[in-house]
Structures
1.
Amino acid sequence: MSLLKTTESKILACIQNDLWARFVTLPNQDRIWTLTLTNKVFHKPAAAKTPLVMVHGFGGGVGLWIRNLDALSRSRPVYAFDLLGFGRSSRPPFPSDSAKAEEQFVNSIEEWRQSVGLENMILLGHSLGGYLATSYAIQHPSRVSHLILVDPWGFPERPQTQTEENRDQGTEVVKRPSPPRWVKVIATVVSFFNPLAVIRAAGPWGPGLVNRFRPDFKRKFEDLFDDDTMTQYIYHCNAQTPSGEVGFRAMSESLGWAKRPMLQRVHLLPPSMPLTMLYGKWSWVDNSSGYKVVQIRDQAHTRVLLINEASHHVYADQPEEFNKVVENICNSVN
């Protein structure tokens, strides 16, 4: 944890605006690591504006927003926090039931909001954060002025693989080939572990593993840091006791599908709540879910935007475009 704190301090040193970093204690004594940013120059007008709250994705933390925090806090307060069980926040046990694990995440966000004293907010979530932000907005709609989902995880239903298909009006049954045995064995073995267990099992070789498998993180931030700062940050975020990771595993099926897909519940968002879904055009997340949400909500205040030349980490791949789009959304609120 001390190494995570040191690495994060180096990242946050890039911030120009006023930064307040602290732990927010929840009623059950869990602590949520929180950043609050305000513009150095325009305190009063910004204070009247609806704050933007940013929720990171799986295995991440507040440091990943380093390209966005200054720009987005020019005209309104910005809050970013480490989800319960991730980053520098507390790492409590999570239940193995998917609905209960999701509820624990969402309750912690609501208790955080109450502790910080926000009446309402523009809520932005990336990946897993997008899934949890949607769940939060369904349960606490009066607190969300605009919901922004960035490459959200967990929306589509897992495709049903057809093991048999009928031909010639059902007279002939053709079985599709199943995956090779070694694929099944590896999938079974991996299913017994938390997703990032390999990083912890690697011990001192862990940071090298992150560098090797995620060299893109170093590239995305290379104009800010010419060393391994960002991959070290990712490593130290995930080298500790798995907690949020256990919660995520409870909510997900193999290969990262959600056990409770959000497309089945997105109709529960109030039609009056504006929703914008941002996708990287090159992302592995299928943006067709966004267009399904538009249909489900019958186009009620729902937009899908694609950001060119961006993959899953849209905010880091095309930060200027991302910041501009988010700022425009925020200005549409007030």
Note: Confidence is low (pLDDT under 50) at residues 162-176.
2.
Amino acid sequence: MDARKLFDENPKGRDIVTWNSIISGYVKNEQIHTAQQLFDEMPEKDVVSWNTMLKGFQRINDIEKLVSYFKQMIMYGLKPTEFTIAILITALSNEEFRILIQQIHTRVVNLGLNSSVFVGSALMKSYMSMGCPVAIYRVFEEILVKDVTSWNALLSGYMNLGCVDQGRRAFEIMPERNVVSWTTMVNGLVNNKKLDEARFYFDEMPEKNVVSWTVMISGYERNDQFVEALELFVLMRRLGYCPNQITLSSALSACAGFSTLVFGMQIHTSLIKSGQPVDIILSSTLVDMYAKCGDINAANSAFELIPEKNLGSWNSIIGGFAEHGLGVKALEKFESMKNVGVRPDEITLVHVLSACARGGLTDEGEMHFEKMEREYAVKPGIQHFACMVDLYGRVGQLEKAVELIRKMPFEPDVVIWGALLGACGLHSSLEVGLFAAEEMHKLEQDHPAVYSLLTKIQGEKGMWNQVTELRNMMKQSGARKQKAGSWIESPT
């Protein structure tokens, strides 16, 4: 490091600015241990020196050392600045240390820094993480000159805590609004499931940027309004806005949700033509889109092109093979993933067990289920049990499925009983079917699957009086038979 060489060769020319510069360089390169050694050797320190070290400890999330050095700074006789307090507050927003926020707030008031926009905004964010809307407003009131940043912090705090009415009022009385204000409002309404109102404010925005477009598009996609997400994406492109990687990822996820392969391919093609870099999230979304839209070969090709695959990308391709009933392929990918040192998580194991169920790989499914805690350090959840019930049900081992349900460490849900009931329909098992239907009925009355599958089983056994009785019950309860469907997508 040239700067360090000059620093070492000129000991007499070192002043406090020189020391601060070299320490700052080490902090920015995350060489905190070396920065700390130099800091401890400094003959004289100013507030910039302390702030630099505090920032360094924040960057590596060493909160205990950060607090310790802050106390030393006070003992050293230096008065913290707004920047000092903001670093401290941001670091203490970590759940383990939130209890100290009120103490810091008291010190802020004693130091006369509570009127600062910079400190106030940091405090509001901390109280938001603690779920304290009253404290957020109290901090806001303490700010002497409130600018648009402080108003945005108040708005964000209310919306993130679900205080939509207070957030709406704050937005309406803001003396000044910028694109961040509008985007915060739209995002807050989206997160609180008020998409129609979010769209109203989005349409009213005097100025939009790629972030505001992305917030609205991803909001639609996350709430399964895939058509609206894609229509807005098309409008965005038509108006000349350039999507970023998050926008494209949301649009591709909407294509996956709506099963529109043609639209997804068009987005992929335009992405290639634009030369825009593709990060790991976008790459994984492409894999997921192709798999869910029915082109597993394209999904695998997209996966193979990812230079550095992470857990998310592995999960996408394993899940894709599982959904297509290609159990052996899914397990091969799972082994490849483990071989390169990527550790599976609970999502991976759901895909693996689902692949075994759909592929009729009973022995493999049992093996991976037994290995979950012992080898993969993943505690089986209700989804994993549902996969195993489905696995046993598909191969007709209904007694094993019932035994597994009874041994579960938690109460079975509708999905569990639905999987068992579906297996009974597949294998015409009336006795177990009635048991599953009764348990399912306790959780969700008048579920159409209960009537439909029992009607099927009883019809196959020639029990037509019971079939008629069930159909009459369906009419009385308003339950309707679930209809299957298919679609053809034209590329033109």
Note: The radius of gyration is 29 Å.
3.
Amino acid sequence: MDHPRPCGCKGRRTCLSCEKDFDIDRIDYSQIFQLKAYTFCPHCNRIYPGWDTDTVMADHERSHNGDEGEEYSGIYIELDFITADEENRLMRGIDEMPWDISQSGRRKQNFGPKTNFKKTKIKPGDFAGFPQFSEFVQTKFNDVPLMKGFQTIEQCSLEYTPERGASIDPHIDDCWIWGERVVTVNLLSDSVLTMSRFRRNGEKNRYNLHFVDKYKDELIMNLPNEEELDRFDERIVRIPMPRRSLLVMYGSPRYQWEHAVLREDIRERRVCLAYREFTPMYIKGGSEYSKSQQVFQLAQNFWNHSEVNPHNLTSF
């Protein structure tokens, strides 16, 4: 099972198709995460007891029934970041382009440099910039104070549908190449990001987390120590991702928590645009900038998807 199956899954990652065809028992994270669930309220930026994000968000109108909630720093949500018309424009362009199969029942469209996380090597590959119909999203980032200085160098469309049992297992985005701010624009339907504490347990190099020591002084917020995080023992935190919202994850949730999208939280077709920036080592003035300078130049390009084959962009 270490080799890709026809559906795109491999290893422990599964979808409804390969679970049926290969008689695979999936890992049911929704059961694992039932203990002490809290939900982040995007209206008051605090967490409250409860698994169901719709209920907790509705309770905001009732002042969460007198519960003062708890601080959970490192999450920014802007509701209605894009309009319904802008969403329609994005989806029209996205669906006019070909999809690639991905693991765990997802499909993807990826625009970014070619990276090897194990060997920590990067090259432009076929990267030639981004589809023009999505340019306005990056422009809108300029109106978000938290996004100041954000330079998009990867944009990925990800599709989740209940028919395929789509999900993504708990993980931390690579820390060697992808910078602090993990950005998502959510389209078509509401969903949830489920956060669980990550403990290294001797796995120093997992997710390339050891690279964080090289730029920790440049992070937006100081990372709490393990003792400060102990109050979250045996808890998970549920982050709502309402339709047309912007989510920015940084600081402690970015580096000290794994995030997942559970199959049970995909009730309708959901498409998200995921945006990544480089770590400080690869931006101008950083020690590795010579290896990324060409990528930054290519990232200024926005091409007409109706005139260019996205799988043959090397001649662009």
Note: The first strand starts at residue 37 and ends at 41.
